[in-house]
Design a protein that fits this description.
four-stranded parallel sheet; 280 residues
């Protein structure tokens, strides 16, 4: 007989940041994903920049002990939080310290300990905002003529994560747009005429079995009948086959998203773009 599944392990994790908490959330989730049957109970505290705000955080930690991960630049606040946790036997991790120390040794300079330094309103920030605005304006087949100004155009049948992948890319300053492949609806003519100098076209492939599963779950979540042509096995298989033939005919790069996360798909696209620019 197979071994019974292990019960889930629940634990409190307090994420304390003087900024938006994006870094803490990403690192914590990546770390917890390495453990089976582990369920972190997240307590998030963002923009913690004063003694009063820290007091509230410490009360929460005392009420629900667990582990504390933090990114706080202010030295006085850091020391107070660390001392508080040490006295109560609560494990703490300054998430960015090791990376900052290594970079400081390599560069031979000290970090400036600037709060939310990664969100400075510099050219990098404005480039990212411009890419996000472009992506939102060219999502799901909108403003197709403007796609000639894209860095990458994603094509795929419905439910292949085109939109979240484009948004992720936009946060990496990539101007991304996407067009859904709908049975009976032709692509804009210029898409198949794009050359090496135009936007890079990437086809998102998916197995018919996986797509049926995703679409049925989507219909159930909307309280709609899951037994429609949208999730019909034969119809979906034909839809996927036609999309794959389109990709092959145009010799476009493709990525199979059947079991990929959005982050993995975006990373593969960034590699494609880097390769292309390297050969330009």
């Amino acid at each position: 007989m197979p071994n019974p599944p292990r019960p889930s392990i629940y634990f409190n994790v307090h994420l304390v940041s003087d900024s938006t908490g994006e870094t803490l959330n990403a690192v914590q989730r990546a770390a917890c994903a390495q453990f089976e049957n582990v369920q972190p109970l997240e307590h998030n505290y963002y923009l913690v920049r004063s003694e009063r705000q820290l007091e509230r955080v410490m009360r929460e930690i005392e009420a629900a002990p667990g582990v504390v991960w933090y990114t706080i630049s202010d030295e006085a606040l850091r020391k107070r939080l660390e001392a508080f946790c040490r006295e109560r036997g609560v494990a703490t991790l300054p998430v960015l310290d090791a990376s900052i120390a290594m970079l400081g040794r390599h560069l031979g300079v000290s970090a400036n300990q600037k709060v939310a330094g990664q969100h400075a309103l510099d050219q990098d920030y404005f480039d990212r905002m411009e890419a996000i605005n472009f992506t939102l304006a060219h999502d799901d087949g909108q403003n197709v003529d403007g796609l000639v100004g894209a860095d990458v155009i994603l094509l795929g049948v419905s439910r292949t994560s085109k939109t979240p992948t484009c948004v992720y890319l936009a946060n990496r300053k990539v101007r991304a747009g996407n067009i859904p492949l709908v049975p009976g609806v032709p692509l804009p003519a210029f898409i198949e005429e794009l050359g090496e100098k135009g936007p890079m076209v990437v086809g998102l492939k998916i197995s018919a079995e996986r797509l049926v599963q995703i679409r049925r779950q989507r219909l159930i979540s909307l309280n709609e009948d899951e037994h429609t042509i949208y999730a019909d096995e034969d119809a979906v298989r034909d839809e996927v086959t036609q999309a794959n033939r389109l990709f092959q005919r145009n010799k476009w790069k493709t990525i199979d998203v059947s079991r990929r996360s959005v982050e993995e798909t975006a990373a593969a696209i960034l590699n494609f773009l880097n390769e292309r620019r390297g050969h330009a």
